[in-house]
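Convert to structure. Protein one:
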Amino acid sequence: MVDTDVTLGFIDANNELQIRDGYNTGYSPPVTDSDQSQLTNTRGSRVDGVTTVEFSRACRSTDSSDFSMTDSDNYLIFGTGPVFNGLFISYHSIRPTITTETVMFDCGSSRKRRQAPVPVAETAGTPIHPMDCSDLVIGTARNDVFRMYDAYTRDRSTPFPDSVYGGEDNLIAAVGRETPTGFTEFKFRRRLDTMSAFDHPLVNGRQYFIYAHGQEQNNYHFRLRTGIHVPTASDRQFYKDDELKYHGFTRNRGSRVVDLTKSKTAMPDLPGFSYGCEEGNADRCMYKITWVVDTLLKVVNFTLSTTAVDSWIGLGVSKNKFMPSTDVILAWIDATGQTVITDRFASGYFPPQLDMDQSQIMDARGGSVGGLSTFQFSRPCSSSDQSDFSLSDKDNYLAYPMGSLTPDKSFFTKHTLPPSFSDETITFDCTATAT
């Protein structure tokens, strides 16, 4: 699945075709391409239990995320899998089949055939890319020192401050910092009605936003090989901290539709559990977990943190408040400083076994700064893995285990103390209307 150009299609709960052009950077769900214009003439149906999806694709795509169909070194992969909640794809149900030989589509034939009309944007030329003509706010921070400015980009090139184009910075106030837990956060203020050639107004109702952050040192993700991959590269540290450069072909970028008029003026305290917190500092605890339910994506976003040294921390989902038959997620920092987050199942009073399907742990990341280790991950409300309990069930208790690592930090040992369980069942309401 690594470095695979993917097209996925299914009939949703409303009996409508959903088809997406995506790309796999690893053994995780494909990331949807920002350019969906390369799929044309799409249609599909489900009749008598048979799903049929049809589409056209240009022999030579204009999207850098796509492979050319005329290349002579392409293999084709055929996969299928379930759709949960009638909305989102899950892990393929059987191992995908791959052609034994490369397949090349010969688009150079001189035989003429009638071409179906290709839909184009209302404006002339190539359909607009989501990054084209974007009003941006860009920030960097080092400890408590930060810079933040109003920017604009005409296309997919590096954005520049509005002043470069003859505009002005319309931020009224801004603040930013690097948090003690290793995250960077910013706040800024801008008038809703600000509008110029380089500023889009913040309108009432739902509005489309894009976001991105820079790549981390020595953790680069590219669609194709770049100059830093060749032996003669003059600067292998080209992507330096706090420099505005390409965000990479990963989940470092994304988009979201948000209605700013319905946003709360203050964030409420997040639900969760903690113990062993430092006096006067509720963010530094021996064990702390918080969560946020994303009703739009039907996932629960978890954050775990601990001040314990050389330790693992975890989350369990149980039906009976006992270790046997408990769905478990464990996280730690290994000897190389890498984050390890695994999905497991405890069938008895012995180490939980690794699930065969690890795809239900999404957007996993973590780190240790200032003696505090923090881990974040997302989990679908309804997992497609039979080893996982559904988070939306009404009879789940949560377990809060932690313990020490082996001396080489490659594996976990038995929990230090018997894990605490929630006093009552906890249900994650994923059916609420997203705002």
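Protein two, convert as well:
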Amino acid sequence: MEEELMDGSVISMLHPMIQASKLLQMKKQSFHDAEEIISLCTCLNLLQIQKLVTMYTPSSGFEERVPIAIIRYIAKKNQSSKTDPTQLMVDVSYQFPVTFPFSYADVNYNDIKIPKSIQLSNNDLFSSIKIKIKID
């Protein structure tokens, strides 16, 4: 299963989310920090970076809010960038099939004993499965 996920298509779809989580962990207090964010988040466009930095709300007492000057700096870079796409959201319409291997369990379901404290009868849950269950 891991080989199927590592074919590149799934990983490439996850890169923007990975970089967004890294961005949220990075220091965001100076223009130098802003440049580092822009240079390291290559899978995110400047509009996405600007939105993440703007919407970021740190835990109280642990980190300061992103200064407005840094947000404006990133916005200005976004406006001056002619090649940057304007897509804000990640496309979530992709679907990747995942196969989980079936492991046979050597359990005889006719021998399962359910305690009375669970208050199940044969007609409740297991009637659609057509399994006879012994209730103690």
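The helical segments are 2-5, 9-25, 31-40, 46-55, 68-80. The beta strands are 113-114, 134-135.
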